[in-house]
Structure to design on (261 residues):
């Protein structure tokens, strides 16, 4: 087992499990996303690993960025090292890794947490889970490549509905719409994700990776371009009064009063 302050990597036969360990809500930043990308890249060098389950401990899978604590946390690495990349550059690394990923989504997958879940090939969830691209509710442009991944998964109309409205859907609707693939009982999300991962691991590993590479051909490049646009839009919106109001209202659990400025 590999252990860092925020991640644990274990093996179950030919399946690796990456567990996010920032309970209860597993808020992310560039450091955490960099760690997930690095773990996946390391697993790419492990011929014994054929599939990966991305899971989390605590109440939520990933509730996105903790804007109330740090309004800039969604984009920039908390580092003075000029070689460190902003969060979305780190996120793009995830899409370039080779092994199939199954996200075990319990609780909340919100904002960038939804983006992280959509970086996986498949999502296993439960009725009690909820999914939301809540960026516009906060006065911000969507990020983490969701402007690319959601239309692929849902089609443009349903993706636009979620991205424009920020509405929340539960796990059952996520499966109905194609945002998730397997609906498990509450408390069995991770074990169900492992069952699917082991099914994938029964395939010939070279053929599995080759097929995945063909199906996802060009995706990482499109994600990188999409995140460049997302980052630019987030930067100017972050300086608006509406963003400040969105963060204030969200922290207070109140309805925001946006002023178009």
């Amino acid at each position: 087992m590999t252990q860092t302050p925020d991640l644990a990597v274990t093996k179950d036969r030919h399946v690796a499990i990456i567990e996010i360990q920032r309970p209860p809500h597993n808020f992310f930043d560039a450091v955490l996303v960099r760690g997930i990308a690095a773990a996946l890249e390391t697993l790419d060098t492990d011929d014994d690993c054929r599939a990966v389950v991305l899971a989390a401990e605590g109440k939520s899978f990933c509730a996105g960025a903790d804007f109330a604590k740090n309004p800039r946390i969604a984009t920039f690495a908390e580092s003075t090292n000029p070689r460190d990349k902003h969060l979305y550059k780190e996120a793009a690394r995830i899409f370039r890794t080779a092994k199939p990923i199954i996200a075990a989504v319990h609780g909340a997958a919100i904002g960038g947490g939804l983006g992280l879940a959509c970086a996986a090939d498949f999502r296993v969830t439960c009725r009690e889970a909820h999914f939301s691209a809540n960026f516009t509710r906060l006065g911000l442009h969507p990020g983490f490549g969701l402007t690319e991944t959601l239309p692929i998964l849902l089609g443009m109309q349903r993706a636009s509905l979620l991205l424009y409205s920020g509405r929340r859907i539960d796990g059952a609707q996520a499966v109905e719409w194609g945002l998730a693939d397997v609906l498990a009982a509450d408390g069995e999300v991770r074990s169900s994700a492992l069952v699917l991962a082991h099914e994938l691991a029964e395939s010939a590993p070279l053929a599995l990776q080759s097929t995945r590479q063909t199906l996802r051909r060009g995706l990482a490049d499109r994600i990188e371009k999409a995140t460049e646009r997302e980052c630019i839009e987030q930067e100017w919106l972050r300086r608006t009064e509406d963003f400040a109001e969105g963060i204030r209202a969200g922290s207070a659990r109140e309805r925001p009063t946006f002023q178009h400025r």
